[in-house]
Design goal:
Strand content: under 5%
CATH class: Mainly Alpha
Structural class: mainly alpha
Number of domains: 1
Distance between the termini: 59 Å
CATH topology: Na+/H+ antiporter like fold
Radius of gyration: 21 Å
Oligomer: single chain
Helix content: over 70%
Largest sheet: none
Number of strands: 0
Length: 421
C-alpha cells in the first residue's frame, strides 16, 4: 500500500460522502462541515501516514484552493436569491454590511491589540480576517434552490445569504489596510498610506468589482436567455458547467483590472438571475455550483481536521482561545443585533441573524493571502492558530444549532400563516 492509494481512497469516500451526507444530516443537529472536519481529525490520528497540510509552509496552495471554493460558493449564493435587487428589499443586507462588519473589524482588532498584545497591523488583520461571514459553510441557513418558493427565502435566510455574498468581497479593503499599516510600521510610522488606501483599495477596487460584475452579468444574461442564435442561447442546452465559466470569467476580469473579484462574482450571479428570473436554467447552474462547492468544502475541512491534529493550535495562548470564543459568542451577536434595531423583523428572527455569523473558508483565504504580502512581525503561527480555532468552533457550534433554530422559525411561521395549524 502506498500513500497515493490511501489518498485515492480518501478522495473517493469524500466524494461519496459529499453526495450522501447532506440528506442524512438535513434533519439532525449536525452539518456536512462537521462530518468532514471530524473525518480529517480521525484519518490524521490513524497510522496511515497521510501528510498534513501546513498553511504556513503550503501557503500558496491553501490560498488558491480556498479562493476557488469561495468564488464557486459566491456564484451559487447569488443564483439562489429569488428576491429582486432594491435598496429597501435588501435593507437587512445593507445594515449588516454597514454596521456589523466594520464594528466587528474594530472590536476584534482592539481585543487582539489589548488582550493579546499584538502590534496594530496584526490586530487589524485578525479583525479583517474574522469579520466576513461565510457562504461556504452556511448551507443550513442559506436560501434554498432557485424557484423553491417563499419558505426557503424568509428574511433570516435572505439576510445571512446576502450578507455572506457581499461581505466576502468587502473584507478586502480592511485586509489591504492591515497590509498597508504593516508596511508603514516597518518604515517608521506614517499615516500617508490612508489617502491612497481609501482612494484605491476602498473606493477604486470596489467600483471596479461592481462594474465588472454588472457588465459580465448583463452580457452573460443576454447570451443565456435572449441572444437570437439558438446555438449561443445557452439556457436551451441546460449545461451546468457553464456556471464555472461565468464564475472564472467574472473573477478573472475583475482581478486583472485590479478590482475585487469576490464582489464581482456575486454581482454577476445576481445580474444573471435578474435577466430571466423565473427560468429553470438557474436551478441547473446552481445545482452544479453546489456540487463543486461540496467537493471543495469536503477537501478543505478534511485538511483542516488533519492540521488540527498536526499542531495547528500549538501556538495558541489561553487569551487567544478566549478571543476566538468572544468573537462568536459576544462580538458577532451584539454587532449583529445592533444592525437590526428598528428593522421590522421579529425578535427571534433578529436573534438568529445576529448569532449565525458563520466563520469559515473565507477567513482561511484572507489570512493566507495577507501573509503572502507581509510577515506581520512573524506572527503567522499565532494568527493561524487563532483563526483555525475560531473556524472550528463556528463549524461545530453553528452546525449543531442551525437545524433546530431554522426549523423552529419555520414551524413558528407556518403556524402563524393563514390556514396554518
Amino acid at each position: 500500500m502506498t500513500l497515493s492509494d490511501v489518498v485515492y481512497v480518501c478522495l473517493g469516500l469524500g466524494a461519496l460522502g459529499a453526495a450522501v451526507l447532506p440528506r442524512v444530516v438535513s434533519r439532525r443537529p449536525l452539518s456536512l462541515p462537521m462530518v468532514f472536519l471530524a473525518a480529517g481529525i480521525l484519518i490524521e490520528l490513524l497510522p496511515v501516514g497521510v501528510p498534513a497540510v501546513d498553511p504556513v509552509r503550503d501557503r500558496l496552495w491553501v490560498e488558491h484552493t480556498t479562493e476557488a471554493c469561495v468564488i464557486v460558493s459566491l456564484m451559487g449564493a447569488g443564483l439562489a436569491i429569488d428576491r429582486p435587487f432594491g435598496w429597501r428589499r435588501w435593507s437587512s443586507a445593507w445594515r449588516l454590511l454597514g454596521v456589523t462588519m466594520p464594528l466587528t473589524v474594530a472590536v476584534v482588532a482592539l481585543l487582539a491589540w489589548g488582550l493579546l498584545g499584538w502590534p496594530p497591523a496584526a490586530a487589524l488583520l485578525l479583525g479583517a480576517v474574522l469579520a466576513p461571514t461565510d457562504p461556504v459553510l452556511a448551507g443550513e441557513v442559506r436560501v434554498g434552490e432557485p424557484l423553491e418558493g417563499e419558505r426557503d427565502e424568509d428574511e433570516v435566510r435572505f439576510s445571512l445569504t446576502s450578507e455572506a455574498g457581499l461581505n466576502d468581497g468587502l473584507a478586502f479593503p480592511f485586509v489591504y489596510a492591515a497590509v498597508a499599516l504593516a508596511a508603514a510600521a516597518g518604515t517608521g510610522w506614517s499615516a500617508e498610506w490612508i489617502g491612497s488606501w481609501a482612494l484605491s483599495d476602498l473606493l477604486g477596487r470596489c467600483a471596479v468589482g461592481l462594474a465588472v460584475g454588472g457588465g459580465v452579468g448583463w452580457l452573460l444574461g443576454w447570451m443565456f436567455f435572449r441572444v437570437r442564435t439558438p446555438e449561443l442561447r445557452l439556457s436551451e442546452h441546460m449545461e451546468g458547467f457553464v456556471a464555472l465559466g461565468a464564475t472564472f470569467v467574472s473573477y478573472g476580469i475583475a482581478e486583472v483590472l485590479h478590482g475585487y473579484g469576490f464582489l464581482s462574482v456575486f454581482v454577476t450571479a445576481c445580474v444573471i438571475r435578474a435577466a430571466e428570473r423565473s427560468h429553470g436554467y438557474h436551478k441547473v447552474l446552481h445545482e452544479f455550483t453546489e456540487q463543486i462547492e461540496r467537493l471543495l468544502t469536503a477537501v478543505l475541512l478534511f485538511l483542516l481536521g488533519g492540521y488540527l491534529v498536526a499542531g495547528a493550535l500549538s501556538a495558541l495562548t489561553p487569551r487567544g482561545a478566549v478571543l476566538g470564543v468572544l468573537v462568536l459568542l459576544v462580538v458577532r451577536p451584539l454587532t449583529g443585533w445592533l444592525a437590526q434595531v428598528r428593522n421590522g423583523t421579529g425578535r427571534k428572527e433578529r436573534a438568529v441573524i445576529a448569532v449565525f455569523g458563520i466563520r469559515g473558508i473565507g477567513s482561511l483565504f484572507y489570512l493566507a493571502y495577507a501573509l503572502g504580502q507581509d510577515s506581520f512581525d512573524g506572527l503567522a503561527r499565532e494568527l493561524w492558530a487563532a483563526v483555525a480555532l475560531t473556524v472550528v468552533i463556528s463549524v461545530v457550534l453553528h452546525g449543531v444549532m442551525a437545524t433546530p433554530a431554522i426549523g423552529h422559525l419555520d414551524r413558528r411561521r407556518d403556524g402563524a400563516a393563514p390556514g396554518g395549524p
